[in-house]
Specification:
This protein is an alpha/beta fold. Helix content is 26%, strand content 35%. The protein has 3 domains: 88 residues, D-Maltodextrin-Binding Protein, domain 2, CATH 3.40.190.10; 72 residues, Periplasmic binding protein-like II (D-Maltodextrin-Binding Protein, domain 2, 3-Layer(aba) Sandwich); 82 residues, Alpha-Beta Plaits (2-Layer Sandwich), CATH 3.30.70.260. Strand 13 and strand 14 form a beta hairpin. The site of prephenic acid (PRE) has 15 residues, from helix 1, strand 3, helix 4 and helix 6.
């Protein structure tokens, strides 16, 4: 099994991907990962979807809505960031924008004058620190290797920091089996009670929602797509009945079934 995820080696995505495949390759953006899986170049892709401090990874939500892939598994991992640098004398902190945001309070209190630099991934920020004594990176402490010092550990603003990843596969691998499912709904309509009707379709069939997120459709201001995760498999009658109602409500737009899957907790 060959998987693709956010690189270079040493990202949190890489750590999650190791639970899925022995052979892991890298891309520099979530969209590039999802495109590569859609084209069939890899069996699996691993992409971050949501963080417990910073919320949704919007690049992933948008790419999943635009492409045709399957979600085959969910992975939840704790995220414990370290500050890595050659010396204490740095003026720039480089990391993924999500990681910088997850450590916002720590950075503001300890390094209020540091310039924050958003790069493609935490591992890319650590590489910047390895190349430049003026730069510190934020990432997993194992990335220090021999050349960087771990100046501080557990610098995320909440100790319970965790990120949820989706394992994606080509659309042909969509499954109806699993305890959870994900759909994207584009109603292409706007009237009082539209969202209530969508939610009632699940409530009426006794299905618990675990996440609902609205994203702009990009078509016009105030027009939205809804990303919905719910706790039922698509093989279940109650899910089929609820989705029939959702499809009726969205008859002017579309409903994309990304598949059913189970969740795995990965510690590293
Ligand atoms: O840069 C990384 O290490 C990633 O795997 C990306 C990412 C993210 O996009 O949320 C993954 C987990 C952490 O929340 C921080 C960054």
């Amino acid at each position: 099994m060959q998987a693709v995820t956010l690189g270079p080696a040493g990202t949190y995505s890489h750590r999650a991907a190791r639970a899925v495949a022995d052979d892991v390759e890298f891309r520099e953006s979530v969209s590039a990962i999802i495109d590569a899986v859609e084209e069939g170049a890899y069996d699996r892709g691993v992409v971050p979807i949501e963080n417990s401090i910073e919320g949704s990874v919007t690049e992933t939500l948008d790419a999943i809505a635009e492409t045709d892939v399957a979600v085959t598994q969910e992975i939840v991992t704790p995220i414990r960031h370290a500050l890595l640098a050659q010396t204490e004398e740095f003026s720039v902190v480089a990391s993924h924008s999500q990681a910088l945001a997850q450590c916002r309070s720590y950075l503001e209190s300890k390094y209020p004058n540091a310039k924050l630099e958003a790069v493609a991934s935490t591992a890319r920020g650590v590489e910047r620190a390895r190349d430049d004594p003026n730069v510190a990176g934020i990432g997993h402490p194992d990335n220090a290797g021999g050349t960087l010092n771990v100046l501080a550990e557990d610098i995320q603003d909440r100790s319970s920091n965790a990120t949820r990843f989706f394992v994606i596969a080509p659309a042909s691998e969509r499954s109806e089996a699993g305890g959870k499912s994900t759909i994207v709904v584009y109603p292409n309509a706007n009237y009082p009670g539209l969202l209530l009707e969508l939610l009632e379709a699940f409530a009426d069939h006794d299905i618990n929602l675990s996440r609902i997120e609205s994203r702009p459709s990009g078509n016009r201001l105030g027009d939205y797509l809804f990303h919905i995760d719910f706790e039922a498999g698509l093989y279940e009658d109650r899910a089929e009945d609820a989705l029939a109602e959702v499809e009726e409500i969205a008859s002017r737009g579309w409903v994309k079934r990304l598949g059913s899957y189970d969740m795995q907790h990965v510690l590293y």
